[in-house]
Amino acid sequence: MKTLTILLLSALIGLCACMGVSDTTVNKADSPSDAGVFVEREEASIAVRQKRATAAADLSLAQLESLREVCEANLDCENMMDTSGIIAAYTKHYGPIPF
After folding, report:
1. Which first-to-last residue range defines the signal peptide (predicted)?
2. Which helix (H) or strand (E) holds 46?
3. Which tens digits make up the pLDDT trace of 79-90?
4. Contact present, 59 and 89 (Cβ < 8 Å)
5. Whole-prediction pTM
């Protein structure tokens, strides 16, 4: 059974390799600028930019204070709150923020 699986997998890899390679593709890959691998720094930063967590900006001061009060009841949460912030500590110990 293992031999048959290895044989089928090898055949599939060989078939994919044969179908994917052509003379025009190999010639284009010789020069890196033609291959499309490199992009400008601005384009890369736009493509890779991640949305930053804005949970703290969306909460009011009263909501943040209520999260602090809940987190202060648990020593582990309180210690994490001092190092990582209230949002991370509350989320880790109590789950998603309710409001």
Report:
1. 1-18
2. helix 41-48
3. 999 999 999 999
4. no
5. 0.44
- Between CA 44 and CA 28 the distance in angstroms is 22
Residues 6+ apart with CB under 8 A from 89: 71, 77, 78, 80, 81
Question: Which residue is associated with the tokens 């930063």?
Answer: 45
| Tokens 């890369």, residue located | 44
Query: Tokens 């384009």 label which residue?
Result: 43
Write the pLDDT tens digit of every residue in 44-78: 777 666 554 555 557 899 999 999 999 999 999 99
The residues spanned by each domain of the chain are 1-94
Which has more pLDDT, 84 or 29? 84
State the Cα–Cα distance between residues 88 and 82, nearest whole angstrom.
10
Exposure letters 37-56 (e unless 16+ CB within 10 A, then b): eeeeeeeeeeeeeeeeeeee
CA distance 41 to 88: 31
